[in-house]
What we know:
- This protein has helices at about 25-40, 45-50, 125-130, and strands at about 5-10, 55, 55-65, 75-85, 85-95, 100-110, 115, 120.
- It is an alpha+beta fold.
- The chain is elongated and about 45 Å long.
Amino acid sequence: xxxxxxxYRVPYADTDMMGVVYYANYLVMFERARxxxxxxxxxxxxxxxxxGWGLPVTHAELDYKASARYDDxxxxxxxxxxxxxxxxxxxxxxxxxxDGALLVRGxxxxxxxxxxxxxxxxxxxxxxxxxxxxx
Length: 135
């Protein structure tokens, strides 16, 4: 299984009035990690779109364990958790780098769609193979 880990320093803009990362911003971190997973696999969203297919999110699930704060250096990891039929799940974890504390764990579920019809389509074999294999 291919897994990426990226660093992310929390900017002030990501925090709320209490000085902690606003809960919805973790979904943005998940998206950034998903993009990096795809890039590490040899794909970008631009290339997917050029091939005529997309991966809209159909479900998101996050389990919040602890808070990140302004200027924390985080490690955000992503990997393919499951792939069946026209669906794929990308799991993510967010940890504080200084102490390794798990802050958020979750996943996003996506459907492979044909961008002309916006109907589900079979996943491209080369994409599934690329994101699922070890580098």
